[in-house]
Amino acid sequence: MTDSLSTLPNRRSMHGEIRGKISRGDELAVALIDLDGFKMVNDLYGHAVGDELIKKCAVILREVCGGDARCFRLGGDEFAIYMAGPLSNTILEGMCRGLLERLGQSIPIEERRIAIGASVGLSHTSGSDGLDSSELLRRADVAMYVSKRGGKMRCTWFKADFDRNLEAIRDMDEELRAALLNDEFRVNYQPLVDAKTREVVAVESLIRWHRRDGKNVGPNVFIPIAEESGLINSIGLFVLRQSCKDALGWNGIKLSVNISAAQLRNPEFPIQLGQILEETGFEAERLELEITETCLVLDPVVAERSLDLIRGFGVNVVLDDFGTGYASIGFLRQFRFEKLKLDRSLVVDSADDESLRAMMLSSISMAQALKMNVTAEGVETEAQADLVRSAGCDQIQGWLYFKAMPPEDIAQHLSALAPNEPNKQNSAEPGLEPQPELRPEQRKAS
Description:
Elements lengths: L10 H13 L4 E9 L1 H8 L1 H19 L4 E6 L2 E7 L3 H16 L3 E3 L2 E3 L2 E9 L7 H17 L5 E3 L3 H21 L3 E10 L5 E11 L5 E2 L1 H11 L2 H16 L6 E5 L2 H5 L3 H12 L6 E6 H6 L1 H13 L3 E7 L6 H7 L3 E4 L1 H7 L3 H16 L3 E5 L4 H10 L3 E3 L9 H10 L30
Parallel strand pairs: 6-7, 9-11, 11-12, 12-13, 13-14, 14-15, 15-16
Antiparallel strand pairs: 1-3, 1-6, 2-3, 4-5, 8-9, 8-16, 9-10
Helix pairs in contact: 2-3, 3-4, 6-7, 8-10, 10-12, 14-15
């Protein structure tokens, strides 16, 4: 029983072979492989290119497995490998890591070079633990999604607590859907000040979830789940729309809104952005969209296309969390950011680490050479503020001046803030400060 496109054995064939191995009491390891970004390849280049990519991936899979393991196409962009024997765990994991390395290289198709990756989940049976082929594949599937949530392009072995975590994730997904309907999300704002005058020049929007039971849930908890479920688009649009409404009368200062990788990959997002600007009457020139390096690295072609459309409205684009990822000079020139935001870790640790200080200084010099403004975020002390100010940063953001605050407090702070007098963190309400995130691309709230 063979899959007609890839010519690999299919799902039914795999179950039959595994059942035979288990019936003999063989030790067995199974890997489930899901291609990352395959849907976008189909959307961008058409199904003919997608089909050719499946064929090329099948060839790579065969080469990686050799004669030691069996590979299958389960359907869509899912493949599987199983291996029997006492060392099957170790050998199969090594194969999968080799497979990820191969898939991390671009694949030539019809004069294009397609970048694709994969996420791998692994499971194991001793042959005497009562597990059947369906349960083995289910466990590998659960582990694969853990790999995806962990950043993709990795292998993860199934653990018993994954099932408990999965139930909690499903529960939170349902709660998030209800929260959108019940208006449980709020947007707070953290001001950015001019490095020289200390006047407020912008605010950054940060989402908060105040549940009806009185509990507050940090974005580091619910944003990864929203990204996985697809709710991030709805939540992100809520933040963007609400922020534009709130900031409409705030003395012409800039508004900075974070955009997730999933939003940027959505071909409808530029259209939705234009509709929100028209609906709210917010000036496009006052809006800054913050994106992380990860958003761009995942699919630079789609990102560049979306950013060109976004800039067509007059919106500025900011590279957030610089210093934690992959950006190079060529990368910065390609995407032509209007502003660079230095990651908090680079700012906070530069005072005590000469190599980090040198990195920060070179980053600022590079940004200035490329005509970008520079913001230092996470500034908490006067010493840090003096350091980034003398290094050439244009704007400063951090608890030294302001914590995040609800919109009703922003107008008061804007009118009360006198030039050259920083408004210290004791002016903000307790408990509203930004919460630490799990990954750089998830630190922000939209």
